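lol ok so funny story. i was supposed to be doing the assay writeup but got distracted and ended up predicting the structure for this chain instead. priorities right. anyway since i did it might as well share w the group, maybe its usefull for someone
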Amino acid sequence: MAKTILHKADSRGHANHGWLDTYHTFSFASYFDRSRMNFGALRVLNDDYIAGGMGFDFHPHDNMEIITIPQVGALEHRDSMGNTEVISKGEIQVMSAGTGILHSEYNHNKDEECRLLQIWVLPDKTGVKPRYDQIPYNLDELNNKFLQIVSPEPEDEGSWIHQNAWFHLGKFGNGIRADYKLKAEGNGVYAFIIEGSADINGTKLERRDGLGLWELDELYIRTESDYTEILLMEVPMII
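and the output, tada:
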């Protein structure tokens, strides 16, 4: 029998710092809920709104796989590896923090908000050499299907991380059936509704709701609004 855990959008942690309006699906910063520390190897799912010209000064990370998916606007990134990049919707950024990095993140535009999802995944090995990756994807390839944007293998479609994990992103019209078969035994899937609404394995989900499912082989997804965007994050459940 499959197991599930539902996180409604309004149950997330929330902090508004003026320049940053942020929602935390899992415990992060000043938000702490012992029952919401992670979903398997998925440790952080932050939904950030950054005011024009504002952002995070240089700060450290280590031994974490960090995936950033812009939704609106553009994010300017600088790091201790010498990378200076701007990422926007239609791109994803992946960092393996490994032995340690410093980086800053700023809204690239002064006059518009930047919205993004930032996701942290616990790695399957520590002490690796830090790395940076930024890849584009074709937004048209998301139409009524899932596109792989992260996997464990450098040769596969999308970027890659140090974990037996796969991320897929899709956008759908109303009443579309889009099932998903898990890639690895012992993994679970955390589904996050970016926009719209859907039924996943009998659970109704709305905008910014999250649903974790494990001890199953397949997800049965049917969209229920004119525009639905879904992020699927398949991760190991034992860490």
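The CA atoms of residues 57 and 74 lie 16 Å apart. The chain has two domains: 13-136, 139-236.
back to the writeup now i swear
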